[in-house]
Amino acid sequence: MAVLRLVFNIAWFVLGGFVMGLAWWLAGLLCFISIIGIPFGRACFVIGEMTFWPFGQDAINRRTLTGNEDLGTGAFGMVGNIIWFLFFGIWLAIGHIVHALACAVTIIGIPFALQHLKLAILSLTPIGQTVVAKA
């Protein structure tokens, strides 16, 4: 299973994952311009790394993972997600959806399209999420 995951991740990286990973990192750099944006930028780099190699990883809510509410999973997280959506989230989601449509043209590209759709949903509300390895 690990070999198949590696093959899919390499094919993903070559066929579009690199571009979207760079888009996430660019959003992270833009977030670092202001002090308030630093937590957003850090999240962008974590999710950008997941975007480079998405097979075998998943994003879940930290409240679900730990059972505790923190700053990102409470009211401040909701406000942060609204701000994120307006400035970066919608654009990253559009990029992932365009890539998903391009991948879904062929049967072989359907797993890649599903990963893009997973990342498009994540790009809309990333605050309060964490990346974990799938078992």
UniProtKB/TrEMBL annotation:
- Inner membrane component domain: residues covered: 7-57, 79-129
The membrane topology of this protein is: Multi-pass membrane protein
Q: Where does the protein principally reside?
A: membrane
InterPro entries, alphabetically? Inner_membrane_protein (IPR052937), UCP028777 (IPR031308), YccF (IPR005185)
The superkingdom of the source organism is Bacteria
Q: Does the keyword Cell membrane apply?
A: yes
Q: Where are the transmembrane segments?
A: 6-33, 71-91, 97-114
- Entry's localization field: Cell inner membrane
- Answer whether the UniProt record assigns the keyword Cell inner membrane to this protein: yes
- Record's keyword terms, sorted: Cell inner membrane, Cell membrane, Membrane, Transmembrane, Transmembrane helix
PANTHER family in UniProt: INNER MEMBRANE PROTEIN YCCF
Query: NCBIfam families from the entry?
Result: PRK11770.1-2, PRK11770.1-3, PRK11770.1-4
Q: What is this protein called?
A: Inner membrane protein YccF
